[in-house]
Amino acid sequence: GQLLPPNAGMVEGRTNIQEFWSTVMDMGLVRVQLRSVEVHAYPGEAWEVGEATLYTPENTVADQSKYVVGWKEVDGQWYLHRDIWNSSLPIPNSPVEETAEEGAMEAKEEM
């Protein structure tokens, strides 16, 4: 399998993927909640689109993201083949965040 994490290179192979997620959890995450939005299944493969919420020990949201996972069937077992995701939260002080804030302020002023 392969992970394609944001702002990092590809992570390939079972051992490297396990190490990646172990490191992520060691950064202070205690829970990940996944929600499948859609799944497309074909003979021998499937694709899943979903949303994820990551939680800290204080049960606060550390991140919200969206993902696409490709699954492969091998000898009757399903295995993660590709996993790519990115945050749904705006980057602090980014033009996208500022534009959203400006739009909200303009809408409020028009009321």
Verbal overview:
With 111 residues, this protein is α+β, with helices and mostly antiparallel strands. It has helices spanning 14-26, 95-110, and strands spanning 2-4, 11-12, 31-42, 45-55, 61-74, 77-87. Strands 2-1-6-5-4-3 form a six-stranded mixed β-sheet, with helices on one face. The radius of gyration is 18 Å and the shape is globular. The model has no long low-confidence stretch (mean pLDDT 87).
Tags for this entry?
111 residues; alpha+beta; 6 strands; 26% helix; 48% strand
Write the layout of secondary structure elements.
Elements: E1 2-4, E2 11-12, H1 14-26, E3 31-42, E4 45-55, E5 61-74, E6 77-87, H2 95-110
Q: Would you summarize the structure shown here?
A:
By secondary structure, this protein is α+β, with helices and mostly antiparallel strands. The protein has helices at 14-26, 95-110, and strands at residues 2-4, 11-12, 31-42, 45-55, 61-74, 77-87.
Strand content: over 45%
Largest sheet: 6 strands, mixed
The helix content, as a percent range, equals 25-40%
Rg over alpha carbons: 18 Å
* Mean pLDDT metric: 87
* Intertermini distance: 52 Å
Question: What characteristic shape results from the CA principal axes?
Answer: globular
Number of strands: 6
As laid out across the biggest beta sheet, the strand order is: 2-1-6-5-4-3
How many individual helices? 2
The chain-level structural class is: alpha+beta
Element-by-element helix/strand order: EEHEEEEH
Poorly predicted segments: none
